[in-house]
Structure formats: structure tokens, C-alpha cells
Design goal:
Length: 290
């Protein structure tokens, strides 16, 4: 946990065993410490499956993940055991949307390539078409995964609901923010990418698993699409020899969609509140109900 305040929210109420290492909790540490715990505070880097649940035993009442995504937890196994699941929806939507816009512009306006060029003396002079990329003006931005809880009608936000095929063929920019589920796994495959405009840009801030990454690499290498900006990929961290890191038309970020200081503090606190509520037998602030 990253903040004293939410540490306290838990320690005031229960005994806490905390992984304080720099990276994610190692699997054997998790398995070795989860036994007889009543609540489990986890991150998207922790795979919560039947092995962990078996180790935890019958006392476990809640698994709370400090994330909106829940593809790392075996929801069916947890529900089967009558254990509650909590996650952190809504509070990171703005932060992630901001990052999607930043990533879109970084990709389309070639910001990293341009700053790199300036640093190594490739900036010889202002030049009419140097470092140009597609602009947002008059463009169509296709969004996959507008939140279903969103009350606003598509019309009210100047959008139009279209089918997936139309989104692929008509968009100049495609931004993906849907959950990874069996339905969305590799939704973006070779067939989908090949329907996109050669001038289009693909942005992903959801999960790497919604993309057939080899298919994406191929369309980027062959110029079948203009570029891609990815905050998520498969696997994470992306191995240094991945072709994605060598492509000029691909911007890679290390999964920082929700990485605003306040947002992450709020996520941690919400996670702690869910755990305390579950242990008190009260309704959870943000239970995952499927
Ligand atoms: C981030 O990816 C999250 O699911 O919260
Ligand atoms: C750009 O700086 C311009 O003046 O066109």
C-alpha cells in the first residue's frame, strides 16, 4: 500500500500483513502469507486464482483489487466460494481518459520522435512537412468501451453509436478502453486492423489482451495503419527485444493510465474501505457485481 492514510484505515480496524518490497509481491510470498486472512488487498500484477484461494482457506471474505480491471482475478472461483470482490471503478476514469488523449497526441504529433530528433542534432531548420502527423480537426475518433454506466446519451456528447465494423472503417483514431473479457479477447485481430484506414491511429489504454499483438506489429511494419500508442501490451513489462519498441510509428508507455497521485491515493483508500466494510458485514462501496 502506498499511503499512510489508507494504511491507517486498515490498521485501525484489523491486523495487516504488508508486502513492502519495491515491486509486486512475489508469488511465493503471497502464497506463504495469505493463509487464514480475512481480506486480500491486491493489484493487477497479482494473479488471484484457485491456488491462492486454496491457500487462503475458509476465512477469506473479500478480495479487493486496486484497479478497475479484474482480468487478473478468477471471478468464478471467488464467487463459487462466496467471497466478495471489490474493485475501483469510476475514480480513475478521468485520469485514464487524460492519458488516452495525451497518448493519442503523442503518437499523432510524433512528440517523442521529434524531441529525440532535437536532442541528436537532426533539427536542421523549420521545414514545411517535417515531423508532420494527422491532426484531430475534422477527424472521427472511435471509442471502444465507453462505460456502460455512462448516463449521457451518445448524442449529448457529440457522439454516435455505431457497430464495430463501421467504427473500424470510418475512424481516423481508435481508442480502446473496454474491459478484457472472453468477448473482447483479441477483438483487434488481423481482420480488424485490416479494415482500418491506412491513415488511422490505434490507441490502447485498456488491456494488452484485447489485441492480437503480432497482427498489430504486422500492420505497423507494413504501413497498413499509420501508428499506434499503447499503454498496455502483452506481456507487461514488454520485453526489450519486442519489435514494438523498435517501430518508429509506435509509442509505448509502461501502463500508467491511472497514474495521477491523487487518483492512486483514492484507489488505495477505496480498496481499504471495501475491505473494512466486508469485514464489518456492511455493503461494499464498490462491489464487483457481474
Ligand atoms: C488499470 O489498468 C486498472 O485496471 O485499474
Ligand atoms: C509555426 O510556428 C508557424 O509560424 O507556422
Amino acid at each position: 500500500m502506498c499511503d499512510k492514510k489508507n494504511d491507517k484505515h486498515l490498521t485501525d480496524f484489523c491486523e495487516v500483513t504488508l508486502w513492502t518490497g519495491p515491486g509486486p509481491v512475489p508469488r511465493d510470498e503471497l502464497l506463504g502469507n495469505v493463509e487464514n486472512k480475512h481480506g486480500l488487498f491486491c493489484m493487477l500484477t497479482d494473479r488471484i486464482d484457485s491456488e491462492v484461494l486454496d491457500k487462503a482457506g475458509k476465512k477469506l471474505k473479500i478480495v479487493a483489487t486496486m484497479s478497475v480491471g479484474y482480468d487478473h482475478i478468477d471471478v468464478n472461483e471467488i464467487k463459487k466460494r462466496k467471497i466478495k470482490i471489490a474493485y475501483t471503478p469510476d475514480i480513475l476514469t478521468d485520469a485514464t481518459a487524460e492519458l488516452a488523449v495525451a497518448l493519442l497526441l503523442t503518437t499523432s504529433r510524433r512528440l517523442l520522435e521529434a524531441t529525440g530528433a532535437a536532442k541528436i542534432g537532426e533539427w536542421k531548420s523549420w521545414s514545411p512537412f517535417w515531423m508532420c502527423g494527422p491532426g484531430l480537426q475534422n477527424s472521427i475518433v472511435g471509442i471502444v468501451g465507453v462505460w456502460p454506466s455512462e448516463k449521457a446519451e451518445a448524442k449529448e456528447i457529440g457522439a454516435e453509436k455505431v457497430c464495430f465494423d463501421e467504427l473500424l472503417t470510418s475512424s481516423d483514431f481508435i481508442s480502446v478502453s473496454c474491459s478484457l473479457t472472453p468477448d473482447t479477447k483479441e477483438l483487434f485481430n488481423a481482420a480488424a486492423f485490416n479494415k482500418m484506414k491506412p491513415t488511422s491511429i490505434f490507441i490502447n489504454t485498456s488491456r494488452g489482451g484485447v489485441v492480437d499483438q503480432n497482427a498489430l506489429i504486422e500492420v505497423l511494419e507494413n504501413g497498413k495503419i499509420w501508428g499506434a500508442g499503447l499503454d498496455v501490451m502483452t506481456p507487461e513489462p514488454l520485453p526489450l527485444d519486442s519489435p514494438l519498441l523498435k517501430l518508429k510509428n509506435c509509442v509505448i508507455l509502461p501502463h500508467i493510465g491511472s497514474a495521477c497521485i491523487e487518483t492512486r491515493k483514492d484507489m488505495a483508500m477505496l480498496c481499504a474501505k471495501n475491505i473494512v466494510a466486508a469485514l464489518k458485514g456492511e455493503p461494499l462501496p464498490t462491489e464487483l457485481v457481474l
